[in-house]
Amino acid sequence: MSRAPASSLARWLGPAIATLAALGLLWFVFSLWAAAQPLAAVGVLALGGTALVVYGTATSVAWKYLFPGVAGILVFVAFPLVYTVQIGFTNYSSSNLLDFERSQTYLMEQSVVDERQAYSYTLHSEGSQHRLRLLPPEQADGTRGPALVTPLLALEGSAPAGPVLLQPQGDLKLGPALDLRGLIAHRPGLMGLQLQVPGVSAPLRYAGLREFGVIQPLWQAGPDGSLKQLATGTVFKPNFETGFFESAAGERMPPGFKVGIGFANYTRMLLDADFRGPFVSIFIWTVLFAGLTVLFSTALGMTLAVMLEWQNLKYRALYRTLLFLPYAVPGFISILVFKGLFNQNFGEINAILDALFGIRPAWFADPLLAKAMILVVNTWLGYPYIMILCSGLIKAIPSDLYEASAIAGAGPLTNFFKITAPLIAKPLTPLLISAFAFNFNNFVLISLLTDGRPDFLNTKLPAGTTDILVSYTYRIAFTDSGQNFGLAAAISTLIFVMVAVMALVQLRITQRTENKR
Predict the structure, then answer these.
(1) How many domains does the chain have?
(2) A biological process (GO) annotation for this entry (predicted)?
(3) Same domain flag for 71 and 175
(4) Nearest to residue 78, comparing CAs of 28, 43, 128?
(5) Which residues face 134 on adjacent strands?
């Protein structure tokens, strides 16, 4: 008898939840649209609507499992990528953060208080209401006009619709004046007031915790979008090529606004000699850094893996554990430890070199030594990974091959070059390509160890001799003067293309390896 109500409840519960979710989605989309975010509203509507269709209708079960992954790729991979590419075609920077309308509004909202018409005031409470007492500004002869007061005001509610007419205080007795804490508490109500002095055309507005005054705008908008500076009469017109309001003499008025500049950031990387020099050097060092790291780590890791497979070696498990430790320790800790070891004055490495050879290399000041130090540290961090890979691949080689080689009288080097290396090279190659791509963007090592220093001299944008492309991009975008987000986005797009090409090469090599098996 109880199954019918339960079945009826289940039949109505699903549509009710779907309806509530649809209403919540529409409310959120409307809020984004009202906040002047049309693209975000359209994106949320498309994504949320698709989710409602997938989970609210009788679609394929497979899509119910695939949708979260597809949505995650679109939100966290595709959207940031498209947004970064789009920024690369603009002048977006710390000097050009706003759009044109917001930049114009910001300037139009600038104002100044006319000190000649500034009235000091006190706020007096009378029950739940308040009254302001204003003192006129001091005249040239040191005298002041009579004090003025407002009628009783309810500052906690909405501000009066029009100006509040001031009257002479006369014999009116006022309650105690509120202290600074009381003024701050009633600041929202005070800011909404307009006070009208008899015989003065302009109303008084809130100008701080101590005075009301006549507030004069600094700019006047023109019909063509230009702005006239009232104090000087200079006209600033918007320049949609540079993203600034500029006068006829070329003077720029911040803040600038964001505009599209086409391929200017990309052509700057290629055609600007002052920028191209450090950029090319950093690009070459990035490729060498990633390539040499993979080469040294592979040589060391493969050698240790072969040695650890020697059956007559005692305590192999202990050696393997000790050699694996650099991979077990968090990388940032190892990097900071090495930064202390390589310290020119107090580091243990220089202390040993000084004791043996009488030298104290400037690891962080000399560009060549700094690069050598980076390669040493990164090889230390990377060889355990290669050693583990090679150990697993070596164990997969049939032992019959080594037995036949021993019968033929071959030595360890012959076994390595004729058996071990050829058989592990193919499956190891895609992994080495991925290691190259990882080191191509190894921001943590450069940032913690050298921070890109020592810097190049006489460059338009700060650039370090040990910077790789990703750390150079970070410095352009966030740390050094200018904060040129558009240029950083263009470089990031270039890095993405390079890494994507390496990923495609890796996939091709992997497919060929699998087809040959």
Answers:
(1) 4
(2) maltodextrin transmembrane transport
(3) no
(4) 43
(5) 121, 148
**204 and 283 belong to one structural domain:** no
Q: Residue 167's closest CA among 152, 178, 183, 187?
A: 152
Residue 181 sits in a domain of what CATH number? 2.40.430.10
- Does a structural domain hold residue 258? no
What are the pLDDT digits (tens) for 77-134?
Answer: 888 889 999 999 999 988 898 989 999 999 998 988 888 888 999 999 888 888 999 9
Listed residue (40, 217, 43) closest to 114, CA to CA: 217
Q: Note the pLDDT tens digit of each residue in 234-287.
A: 999 999 988 999 999 989 998 999 999 999 998 888 788 777 788 889 999 999
Q: Is residue 165 helix, strand or coil?
A: strand
Owning domain of residue 72: 3-87
Sign of CA dihedral 439, 498, 94, 78: negative
Which residues touch 122 (CB under 8 Å, ≥6 apart)?
132, 133, 177, 178
Q: How many CB atoms lie within 10 A of CB 431?
A: 18
Whether residues 22 and 58 share a domain: the answer is: yes
In 3D space, the residue among 178, 63, 195, 186 whose CA is nearest the CA of residue 135 turns out to be: 195
Q: Are residues 435 and 323 in the same domain?
A: yes
CA torsion 3-6-12-13 (nearest 10°) is -150
Asked if residue 454 has a cis previous peptide bond (ω within 30° of 0), the answer is yes
Residue with tokens 């706003």: 98
In the block, tokens 């509120």 appear at: 178
CATH number of domain containing 397: 1.10.3720.10
**Overall pTM surpassing 0.85 (yes/no):** no
| Three-state DSSP class for residue 379 | helix
